[in-house]
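Could you please review the protein record set out just below?
***
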Amino acid sequence: MEQAADRSILKVSSLHKQFPVYGSFGKLGGAKAYVNAVTDVSLQLNEGETYGLVGESGSGKSTTGRTILGLTPASQGQVLYRDRELAAMTREEMRNFRKDVQLVFQDPFSSLNPRKRIGRMLEEPLIIHKMGDKAERQETVFRILQTVGLQPEHAFRFPHEFSGGQRQRLGLARALIMNPKIIVCDEPVSALDVSIQSQILNMLKRLQREMKLTLLFITHDISVVRYISDRIGIMYLGKIMEEALTDDLFHEPLHPYTKALFSAVPDFNRSRLKERIMLRGEIPSPISPPSGCVFHTRCPYATDVCRTDIPAVREVRPGHKVACHLVD
């Protein structure tokens, strides 16, 4: 598959996100430290593709997705949607952005209002954006329920009456009802059984083709991201370590962290890996990240330059980028 840069719909440039840590007196005493959740992340989404964002828990994947959506403001950097900077959008432009870019949460039950019937929840964004009259909105709700594999009568039930897989379908229906251009999927299948995971993933791929969707798929599951993604970015401690087309990345991973992740997958073809890398220790604290390459404290190949100099993200092959001093 060829990478088409001219199809870009969303660009992220040098994105940073810090969260203040306050002491006993809260905000009155000022910030004592900062959590560096996202550091200098740059990526691009092309129309109609699925970009997989992979990494351990605490690597900054979800924060990156929420910052791209504008749910949390960026500390530094740019998010461009159709060449329009998110921070500079007018109120009307932001309303259109909210319609075009939707989010599917990891835990569908906590994101559904237990006091409201499903039909009312799905209809609410249509009311806010003044789309259609009551009969037209109800017809849209019934149609979107059928689109995600549910029945129109499910509109009259409450969230607790559904299984976990059905609730995730409802979360997807809520994202799709605005006919978006981009959907950010934040660990959408991690809490589901394997058989239900495959149903949701196949449905996502089908809907992507039918509705011409662009997906940012956030996960820690290597097998899932391999199945659904066109391109993959590997994150560690708030940074992009490696990025490539899916086939290229799995054919020959270059960064030691990527190789370590692949080594942990039981069914991965390890003949492509010259040796297995076993990660030792825990991911460092984002409050005081290591100097130089943030992965050097766990990397078996780390040298002196890795401990002092921050590696730049370089394109070492067409479409294949890596942030490592040891990769030519």
In short: The chain has one domain: 5-115+158-322. Residues 5-115+158-322 form a domain with the Rossmann fold fold (CATH 3.40.50.300).
